[in-house]
Amino acid sequence: MQLRMKLIWLLLLCSNLMLITGCWSRIEVNDRAFVTGMYIDRIDNGSYEVSLGFPLPNRMASGQSPGMPTYGNPYTILTKTAESIPVAIRKIRSDLTREITWGHCRVIVVGKQAAEYGIDSLLEFVAREPNFHTKSYLMVAPGKARDITKLTPVFERLPAEVLREFSNRKVTLDTNVKDFLEASMSGGDMIAGMLTIGQTEMLSEKGKESTWVGTDGAALFKKGKMIGTLDVNGMRAGLWLKGKMKSSLISLKSPSDGKTMSFIILSSKASIKPFIDGEKIGFHIKIEAEDDILSSESDIDLTDPKEIIRIQELLSEQLKRRITRTLYKTQDMGADVFQFGRHLDWNYPKVWSKHKDGWHADYKMCTFIVDTNVQVKRIGVERNSIVRQHEDRAG
């Protein structure tokens, strides 16, 4: 009986092993083409122009000695035009000797014309592609997205890595695909970082005129379409409202002599709480920040606590004006790009259900109460400016 049971268990084990057929759909690494960046344009005939960035492994050898010959850039950009984004990507795939892999794509750049037409087709493709990361950053180019691919990466190897670091370091808004997908469920309003592009002589390129790309303001989306822009201060207000402003520089005119003082932002946090006042909807926004004095050209006495309080009040007031100005501009456009409606839904679902269908119009009538509190934590090793020290010695 015991032998019989052992045979049964052995047969069951063997039958389970037969069900393990291996990775029949596996694609070897050497057969993959890894997308690092995706660039979407819309041209005048209504077609989409899709550009994909790929690293070239055979040109990315590490440990290369100085003086060894180079064989071009370690990346390539492939572009195809079609009536839709998936068809354009299929055309790119047809020209490749490898299978396209989306797992390393962290940046999507949309051209201005494509953004103004609407990004629903892009979101449709990304949402249905199982291997696409929804945490990929989405940015807007001032012209064609394809022009951004011509940038000269100096500190990074690939153009997409340069753009990714802009968002990672919070130099611009870090809006991603997931943010747009969530926004599409409540009206499609969102804000994304704008890029800027130009030509300049680069010492790293032996003085040749090359393409550089930097950050600019922000693009405002309403119902999935770009309807306007914010300047750099407006974009930075977006970082403040999201509580993501840090390691950035702000300047202020000294209250004593009007000369420039610079501060480094150490940290910030923001809270948004809706409130109902009769038939009116309002939002109480509270922003707190900690700064250090980075430099001072003023003769103000930084060892005087009363002067520090004056500086803190001026910094807080300056921040309040910038945020209020940005909020009013979004209200004028009727675009809830900072997702205040979502906060209303979380806290007052019954009120939201009453207003959600006409939210774009109701948003224009909302009240904002902005409280800002900027604290200067440290004045640095030089307790007063060199100007102040010289005046004290002269006195």
TrEMBL record:
UniProtKB keywords: Germination, Lipoprotein, Membrane, Palmitate, Signal
Primary residence: membrane
Record-linked PROSITE patterns: PROKAR_LIPOPROTEIN
Localization (cell): Membrane
UniProt topology in membrane: Lipid-anchor
InterPro entries assigned: GerAC_N (IPR057336), Spore_GerAC-like (IPR008844), Spore_GerAC-like_C (IPR046953), Spore_GerAC_C_sf (IPR038501)
The keyword Transferase is annotated on this UniProt entry: no
Family listed: Belongs to the GerABKC lipoprotein family.
Protein name, entry field: Ger(X)C family spore germination protein
Species for this entry: Paenibacillus alginolyticus
Lineage of source species: Bacteria, Bacillati, Bacillota, Bacilli, Bacillales
